[in-house]
Design a protein that fits this description.
Helix 10 packs parallel to helix 12 and helix 11 crosses helix 12. Helices cover 43% and strands 16% of the residues. It is α/β, with parallel strands linked by helices and 343 residues long. The chain folds into 2 domains: 2-245, Rossmann fold (3-Layer(aba) Sandwich); 249-342, Helicase, Ruva Protein, domain 3 (Orthogonal Bundle), CATH 1.10.8.60. The structure holds adenosine-5'-triphosphate (ATP) and magnesium ion. Adenosine-5'-triphosphate (ATP) binds next to helix 3.
């Protein structure tokens, strides 16, 4: 049985200027994807040392791999570590820009054109600057699921990735030199998944792949990317990271993070009415079995905890059935969750 409280991994101070601390803190938040951390941190170090090339973004990194393995989480974790909040990032959901005219919304209509006054460009200098913070001047920009955008998005990105500038509809320019740019894509994900683990089923998950396979997975992903995007576009990407299917150990750590987050919420929101949380090994196993899979990674884990632990506990709180300072325990037997109370 494990208890979840405010001590431990989630309470380390943020040390943005100390890049060793940065890697450690990142690996606390992003589980089982050490290659991502090893690839990203050197770009931040280059910037902090003042040695990033001029006239280019700090780094342009493409994150590839199966769904629910931590691609978007990587950028959120970086925002948390650099700026103290996972919301300090500018995210462009490329799925919202599937039509050519929608891409124009990013830069705004030129003066005199219909809609000039109404369309606020999404990528203004003010918006780019607003996601930096006093702790770090790095703006994190995320173009999520780039394969879903209309082709003109890739053309627009060419200038940003190469020269760190974007010309807006009103002819002003946006500078991206202090930006770390992330592109995520599911291209090649199915093939990567098959190469990771041919058999379906959670219990059949293999431990992390041997190192030599990383190159193979990367080549599978890159073949799909080259197929979709022009060579000019691909050439402007500094690094490609291929995310691995999460193994059981990684999913367990992610579950711990989610439960620790719940415990923090109880402490912060309920004040004097707060209580302790525990989870039996039966409860943990059923959460893991219901919330993780080779197909969807850890994507369902948060929702599984919400449905089977947070919501029933919330109902007990609402009915005033949890005496202060008691312990609320999640247990499971015969495939069913149950909530126990201990005074
Ligand atoms: N490696 C990981 N470390 C920590 N949490 C993770 C990791 N992978 C997934 N998660 C959990 O699962 C959720 C979904 O992960 P995320 O959004 O990063 O998936 P993704 O790889 O971007 O998938 P998609 O391709 O569908 O966008 C996260 O919010 C987080 O709770
Ligand atoms: Mg994502």
């Amino acid at each position: 049985m494990r208890s979840y409280n405010l001590s431990g991994r989630n309470r380390r101070p943020i040390v943005p200027e100390n890049t060793d601390g940065l890697a450690t803190r990142l690996s606390d938040l992003l589980v089982g994807q050490s290659e991502a951390i090893e690839t990203i941190v050197p770009y931040l170090q280059m910037h902090q040392a003042g040695l990033s090339p001029e006239g280019r973004p700090i780094g342009v990194v493409l994150l590839l791999g199966p769904t629910g393995t931590g691609k978007t989480r990587t950028v959120e974790a970086l925002a948390e570590v650099l700026h103290g909040s996972s919301k300090n990032l500018l995210k462009v959901d490329c799925g919202e820009f599937q039509m050519e005219h929608e891409v124009a919304k990013l830069i705004g209509a030129p003066p005199g054109y219909l809609g000039h006054r109404e369309t606020q460009p999404m990528l203004t200098q003010a918006k780019v600057n607003s996601v930096a913070s006093e702790a770090s001047d790095i703006s994190l920009i995320l173009f999520d699921e780039i394969e879903k955008a209309a082709p003109s998005m890739a053309r627009m990105l060419l200038g940003i990735l190469d020269k760190a500038t974007l010309r807006l509809g009103d002819n002003s320019t946006v500078n991206f030199e202090k930006c770390m740019i992330f592109l995520t894509s599911n291209l090649g994900a199915k093939a990567i998944q098959r190469a990771n683990k041919p058999d379906f089923g959670y219990e059949a998950m293999l431990p992390v792949q041997p190192l030599e396979d990383t190159a193979k997975l990367q080549s599978i992903g890159m073949t799909a990317v080259r197929h979709k995007f022009s060579p000019e576009f691909v050439n402007r990407i500094d690094s490609v990271i291929t995310y691995k299917v999460l193994d059981r150990a990684a999913c367990e750590i992610i579950l711990d993070q989610i439960l620790a987050g719940f415990a923090r919420l109880v402490q912060n929101r309920l004040g004097l009415r707060a209580f302790r949380l525990q989870c039996t090994s039966g409860g943990r196993n059923l959460l893991l079995e219901s919330g993780t899979s080779v197909e969807f990674g850890a994507r369902e884990l948060k929702r599984t905890v919400q449905r089977n632990f947070i919501q029933p506990v919330a109902a007990l709180v609402a009915q005033g059935q949890i005496p202060p300072a008691s312990t609320v325990i999640l247990d499971a037997k015969g495939g069913e969750f149950s909530i126990l109370l201990r005074q």
